[in-house]
TrEMBL record:
Protein name: Heterokaryon incompatibility protein
InterPro entries associated with the record: DUF7104 (IPR055530), HET (IPR010730), HetReg/Transcr_Mod (IPR052895)
Pfam families: DUF7104, HET
Domain of life: Eukaryota
Ranges of residues in domain Heterokaryon incompatibility: 73-204
Biological source species: Cercophora samala
Cited Gene3D superfamilies: 1.20.5.340
Comp. bias regions, Basic and acidic residues: 436-447
Residue span of region Disordered: 428-447
Amino acid sequence: MPNFTKWKARICRQPKPHPKLQPHDVYSPTPLTSNTTRMIRLLPQREPTTTHIKCDLFTYNLSEKQSGERHVYEALSYVWGTGPRSHSITLNNCAFPVTENLHAALWHLRDRQLERVLWVDAVCINQDDNKEKERQIPLMRTIYAQAGRVIVWLGLPLDGHGDQALRSIRQAGGEGLTVMEDDYTSVTMLLRRDWFRRMWILQEVGVARSVVVMCGSVQIDGHAFCQGLAGMDHLLPVDLHPIIHPVVQLIRGAPYRPKYQLDSRGVFSMGELLDMYRFCRATLQHDKIYALLGLSLDGLDASALQPDYSLPWHEVFQKATAHIFGASCTVKTWPESHTAVITGKCLFLGQITSVDQDNNHGDGQVHVWVHCTTAARSLGYGEHGWDWAIPPFSESVREGDIVCQLQGAARPSIVRLCQDHFTVIKTSAPSVTPGRPDRQSNPSKDHLSHVALTFTIPPGSSNNSYCDEAEQSTELLTITPSYHEDPSTETKRLHDTAALLEDRFVRSLQYNGDMSPALQHLISQGSPKIPISEQLVQSVVECPTGEPLQIMQLLFQKRGDNLPITDNVVRAAAANSRLGYPILQLLFQERGESLPVSEQVVVAAAGNDEKAYQIMSLLFEQRGRGLVISEEAAVAAAGNYWSGHQILRLLFEQRGEDLSISKRVLKTAAGNTRCGYETMKVLFQQRKSLQISDEVVTEAAGNPRHGHDIMCLLFARDNNLVISENVVKAAAGNGGNGYEIMLLLLEKRGRHLPISDEVVKAAQGNTLYRHDIMQLLASAQSV
């Protein structure tokens, strides 16, 4: 193996290029013609330690071979680096400056006996001629697609890591060997090299039909490289996954790509490509767009995407963004900003409520569930929502993200609420197929919402944390101070965002009664300028599952005194059968004496299935004698399925003789199928003079669970109890304990029991006790 330390020392000692020789001296002043580029012949050198590199530069016609046929040249994919062109090669007998990394690549690629024909961008394109670069960039797809193979140069094996990493990857893929800790460290360091973050490499390996990966003198077939990484994927740091996976996917596909046709194009739209790769690095910001043209489905035909290095970056950015989002929206960019603002109208389709990033489906896709909005449902997109499998991309989708379709856009987008606007996470999501095409119609103006989106293509050297830090907790004017918006437009936009929030909370409650983390994200990410409606708050406090208490705490934290806590909200909280008590505690804590506690709130509390006693105790504790206990409240307490007797006892304790017990209260208690007996006992203990009407006795006789016990209680209170035809009819039809009640009635009244045709008909309709009760009636009539 060559001694790299000595080799590098030789490089450093080599003479600098002659100052009078400039790179453009080797290029012909005649422009390259269509489908023509340049190649270099890398001349052989028998002495491997000689650092002097000689090349010949010549013109090459890419269209002379038959369509789809591979050429014999090799195309180099490498990192230029940020350093100066401090080294030189001899090119057509002239000293030509190159970077240290390119010099090292050529030195390792040089053969002892044979010439190698290479395409190297830094040499084959005149980098000082922007017009030539603009003409050559559209050819780069052809250059890399027709190459005999593409050589990926990852650099020298720094500190002995790179070459050993490639060997470990080859062993993991071919022999299935376990990667040792030291080897794993070297692999991780290799994968963190700049090549994997470079923008241009996406096109270079994305169209290649044969790839080889090199680090120093060690090389590995591209497919073997991918197989090896797949075997150790679970060991790699998570932060590497979004960087490595897209590149590996491109290399893995190389052997399966069809023969290249000169007029062929990519399979992804520019929007999809930017979704996947906009956080890759580029020396020149323009290349964030231009480096993707060779992979783009629309790049060759779209005038807005044609390379033009004479334009300032913000104009290139504006044109590309407008191309992606359509002509119906307005796109603004500024020289000092890497963020575009897109304004227009959109249809909010749904919210992502679950995300599977772990590839549990084995297809390499991210699987999400989108819960559709009311508007999407009315337009036939589904009753509840849809599953989506989407490719991984540079910025991960999260629970709470919103799916919307801009008016005029070909595809939906995934956006995230960021204070007073939305930021684009994915420009081009899969098209949504309506689940009910018969109900689909064009969205009306009532379905469309005013929206402002920000879309960021970060500076060439940044990573995906740029957007997290710069946008996702900042209001629009802070991100783009130069942006100006008419106040009425801002009001409409914020109002429509508020309507989206309300829809998401109400629809979620209707769908599964749950307050998922996705909804909490909307609250935590929203600006105080977005109004919160009474309906939204009510949907939270009445939710029986999930995290409504935490959401209310978050709402108070974000909105404070501006949060609408109305009588309807307090009533909904009081009726919440599982979580009403802690929610009401929070409401009293936050609003104190100003919290509205009306008669209807007390009625709702008294009727609460599970927490009535706790909530009523809380209301008495907070409001004491000022609490209004109406007849409706007493009726609700008497009818409370689980704790009617406990609530009535509490009411008597708090109000004593002032508590009014009407016929309705008594009748409701007699009909309570779970705790009616205990409730009637409480009433008779507290009120000795209660009048027992025919309606009360009839209700008791029909009680399928406690009817017999309540009837015994009534007879014990008044043995002369009037037993009407209605009472006997109710007992005869009672499917729970009608037989026992009929025995009791016959025992108490005997032949005086009123048995009519209606009573007989009720007995015949009793599916459980029909035979037994009919016998009792027959025996009573025969006496």
